[in-house]
Amino acid sequence: MNLITIIKGWFSQSITTSIKIFKIMIPISILVKILQETGLIVYIGKALAPLMGVMGLPGEMGLVWASAMLGNIYAGIITYFSMGIDLTVAQITVLTTIILIAHTLPVELAITHKAGVKAGAAFLFRFLLGFVAGIVLYQIYNIFNLYQHIPTGIEKIVSVSENATLGRWALGELKNYAIVFSYITGLIIIIDILKRIGVIDVINRWFYPVLRFLGIGKEVIPITVIGMTLGLAYGGGLIINEVQQTKLQKRNVLYALLLMSLSHSVIEDSLLMIAIGASASGVIIFRFIFTLIIMYFFVLITKSWSEKRMAKLFYTKPKE
By residue range, what is the domain housing residue 202? Predict the structure, then answer.
């Protein structure tokens, strides 16, 4: 196989995978924009307010989490800054940790669904476990009296006025799509090269013991690592691509996607949250340990379940 053929294959996969992702992202982005403009997100935020108190947060933070879940992390941060409420480092860490677990749900759940896992199951998994993580982290900080001070020197790293005209929003979305396309193209090229030179086999050997301990098959390890480091949209997109090209076991796809759902984009997004006052002890260390514990028990409980039961609860139908 010559280089030109290989390059053509890369870009063919990249365009095909990107189109699949854009078919999901574009209509959902428009729907979320409508929800934002009509103020419906505010009502969702009010519904979440009682849950915030259980996590040691003011009720107003329900709107912040709702904005992040229906929009994205930046929408949540913008909403947080716009409120002008001073939170302790512990509270900021709890808030940002639950946002990192459950955000951009319309897009990410649609990608998860396309990759073979029911969106409803994935939603409950992320939302409920985000809530549980918030309660546990709040109790840890409260019992040991950690980070009970207001952070100083925190600057607004995003502008509240960013949510401006429709034209600026559309340009921002186009920029996002271009970034997604470039990332997917780069990842497909990198994965193929790494496969050819044997690096994927090395990665498998490094991560296989840990992920095997969690019950995740080695064939999805490289993609799982990508999703955890770069984001669920990219990891999920590549899984969609792999599912259609190879025979990945549905259980491994499920476990990989759920693992990525709890801990993805662990570098970029975590640093973003630390920049607005969160502690690395929560957004990085706690979230990673929490993810491993949850996945261990989830796999332990479900590994003996029949494929029929798993399909009923978690898998999408083949025709989807």
Answer: 3-153+165-313
The most distant pair of C-alpha atoms in the chain lies apart, rounded to whole Å, by: 63
**Vertex 86, ends 85 and 90: CA angle to 5°?**
125
Which tokens sit at 227?
């999703």
Distance CA 86, CA 106 (A): 29
Predicted model pTM: 0.81
DSSP-assigned letter for residue 284: I
Q: Does residue 290 lie within any of the structural domains?
A: yes
**Which amino acid, one-letter code, is at 103?**
H
Q: Which residues contact 310 (CB under 8 A, 6 or more apart)?
A: 250, 251, 254, 302
Give pLDDT, residue 319: 56
Higher per-residue confidence, 26 vs 113:
113
Which tokens sit at 12?
Answer: 């063919």
The phi and psi torsions of 194 (rounded to 5 degrees) equal: -65, -35
Residues 309 and 84: their CA atoms lie apart, in Å, by: 48
| Total domains in the fold of the chain | 1
Distance CA 224, CA 255 (A): 9
| E strand spans, the chain | none
